Amino acid sequence: MRQDQIKNTNSNQIMIHFVIWFLFIMAASLPFYESKSNINSDFYFQWISGIGLFYLNFYYLVPKLLLQKRLWEYLLLLLSIIIVLVIVRITFFPHEAPPDEGVKIMTTNGKTILRRRPPFFRKALPALFYLFITAGSTVIKTLSEFYNDQQNKLLAETNRTATELTYLRKQTNPHFLFNALNSIYSLAYQKSDKVPDAIVTLSEMMRYMLYETDNSTVFLEKELNYIKNYIDLQKLRLNNIENIFVNIHGNTADKQIEPLLLIDFVENAFKYGTDYKGVAFVKIKITIEENNLDFWIENKMQEFHKDPKNSGIGLSNIESRLNLLYPNAHQLTTLESDDNYTVHLKLKLDHILKK
């Protein structure tokens, strides 16, 4: 928070406190104004000492003693202060009842008499006043500290999540680059004429990664184009592109998603679905209905790729990001058979947590 914002916040708080105290004092002084009597010295001392006690309790007693679990010290010191204030008021500021203080009673002959409150009650009023002041101060400060504590915990959790997501993304980027360069190297080794096209496709993907993926979300259409480019790059080195099926349908307009969330699924499918002869079988189906994304991908499991745990980052990266960003808004299932490996992800795009 900038310094000028802090100053504005403090100024607003001071103004709010001033207005509240002003309204309290004006309400308490109404009996004097209605009877056109002078406000006595006890009234002034009551509010000056009461306001002082409020802020002493608010800024020192509650945070330094009560919230530090020093309950008995807090109660002893608070009661001592209240007793001293009450003695001072009774001794040096004898209470003068405000005009018409008491209860008006209608007699049988139609006359109104004023029944004064008993002396004990009038002497107990100062103690009740200070107890009310400290109770209000304690409640407000306790709730304020609780709210600030929750906000700080939320901020710390947000920062931790952002740091973890940054780490996970940094894992994804070199992982993709390694796979892409490996594909281009394979083409170059074969002295294929497809190398220039592969480099152009790779440059488009790198541009997307450099300039788009630092944002908290990206447009779904751009993310899907990135996946299409990756698939096109893989097709350049495959011998049976007719076995690569990609079906995307639905309205992607204005839809957003976490960057690079789906690419690991696609990378794994091509890695484990391609044999040493460059023959692969990968089937991808993506459906967008309103704010729901249905992602389904299947690949053949080649004999020398039977252990999906050796997939580098594997699915753990994606699962971690899904749990961080789409809690209770995603469903991820995987199915492995003797020959096929299937991943099915259902995602509520509008339920992403903002970082």
TrEMBL record:
Presence of the UniProt keyword Nucleus in the record: no
Gene Ontology MF annotations: phosphorelay sensor kinase activity
Keywords: Kinase, Membrane, Transferase, Transmembrane, Transmembrane helix
Membrane-spanning intervals of the chain: 12-32, 44-62, 74-92, 124-143
GO cellular component: membrane
InterPro entries listed in its UniProt record: Bact_2-comp_sensor_kinase, HATPase_C_sf, Sig_transdc_His_kin_internal
Pfam families the record matches: His_kinase
Residue ranges of domain Signal transduction histidine kinase internal region in the record: 164-240
Thylakoid recorded as keyword: no
Protein name per the record: Histidine kinase
